[in-house]
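User: Can you model how zinc ion sits in this protein?
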Amino acid sequence: MRIELLPSTFDDEGVATLEQRLTCFLIDDCVAVDAGSIAIALDSQQRNKVRDIIVTHPHMDHIASLPIFIDDLYPLLQQPMRIHATQEVIQLLERDVFNWNVYPRFSDLKNDYGPVMEYVPIPVGRSFSVAHLTVVAVPVNHIVPTVGLIVSDGTTSVALSSDSADTGAFCKLVNEVKHLDALLIETSFPNRMAKLAEVSRHFTPASLNDELKKLTHNGMDIMAVHLKPTYRAEIIQQLDELQIPNLTVMEPGKIYNW
Ligand SMILES: [Zn+2]
Ligand SMILES: [Zn+2]
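Assistant: Here's the modeled complex, given as structure tokens:
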């Protein structure tokens, strides 16, 4: 399984910067998990292939360029863009984003080929298919309805926490997977901001350390993601101090193969 954390910003030479401002994971060049930077960072081949987007929750950093992506492709879509999300998240997207005020209600619109956007409700706790992948989604502990995911291609399984503080259901689900290749888990704030992390339901390196102790898996790669750019260096230093084997910070723009 090939996973890229899409870049959100680029330097003067056009090279992806290390800061992660938006969230969008591209899996096997065709399935996106969240869509923060989807309209910014895909190459033309990927733009032609991505027709399935899993939206874990409706926060702006996870959906910022989703409306623009569909707008860009509007006349070209020969099949609808499928938005996989829980019923609650679908309702929030319709109410707050695709509401004719912030952006057009694409779910009501057609081009020459047919509908341009279609919602596919996620059955929480049960496996479902997205392109060639099998996915299981369970609620995580965030300030809005949010799901964490296990994504499998039959050989490889990767867990994605989305935005979350300490969880029960997600840890349980992760522990139930027979073989886990990688865990992509958020670490948004440094330890000194534990209060803000708590009210906004995010991890710090210290609370991440506690969470990882709940896991029964050994040896999988642990990729820290969603580091707030302003505190990136401080978070990385505190993650290093944990001395957890296989824990690294995921780099935007780099291709990871599991
Ligand atoms: Zn969030
Ligand atoms: Zn976020």
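A couple of observations from the model: The longest helix spans residues 232-242. The chain is about 25% helix and 25% strand.
User: Helpful, thanks.
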